[in-house]
Amino acid sequence: MVKKCLYCHIELSSDSVIDFCRSCGVKVWGEKMLDAIIKNMEDARSNDDLCDAGRISEDGEKIKKIGF
Fold this sequence. Notes:
This protein is mostly helical.
């Protein structure tokens, strides 16, 4: 499945932590805020803190992650 920007629908890198392109993100939040959002999301991913709620694992079981 190809990941696309929520706003302009251009193709995004599959490893992107955000679901929109940089151009649209700057238009919505501004450059400083977007940079902060991306940094925080990348930090959360590296700490394995991104929520997998509702994702289905390869064996068909729902992934449960607890720990806020």
